[in-house]
Amino acid sequence: MKANTTTVWCRRASPLGTMRLVARGGALVGAYFDGQKYDAREGDGWREAPGDAVLREAGRQFDEYFAGKRARFDFALEPVGTEFQQRVWRAIAGVPAGETTSYGEIARRLGCPSSVRAVGAAIGRNPLIVVVPCHRIVGAGGALAGYAGGLERKRALLALEQR
Known about the structure:
Strand order of the largest sheet: 3-2-1-4
Order of helices and strands: EEEEHHEHHEH
């Protein structure tokens, strides 16, 4: 994270409810559904800026995603988290649209198969909902489990990607 950099944000409508997009230093640092767990808290240096170029581009790409015209996002990302969280988020970013994998498989990919709960906690703290596709991570046997944005949204996102 760059010091003394203003954090800008805007609200954006989506088919799954209002989202808040957050950018800093030319990169998206957060994408949250209203009401989701672990939403970023505004602080000093935050300002609402719906005209910001990063936020406009992110919004355009979200619109394309929800319209079924985009499977991957290609704007700069800079999520803030611990080293372990960053590793987990990179691992889930590699799960292709239309596919799912389990929390256990992510833990195995990271070389720590006994850390399924820690992986789940890191996934729950993902600040870039949808962009870093934590909705593609399911429980053992494919059961829908845990999603900071709510299980109904998780179901809807998976259904959108199956089309």
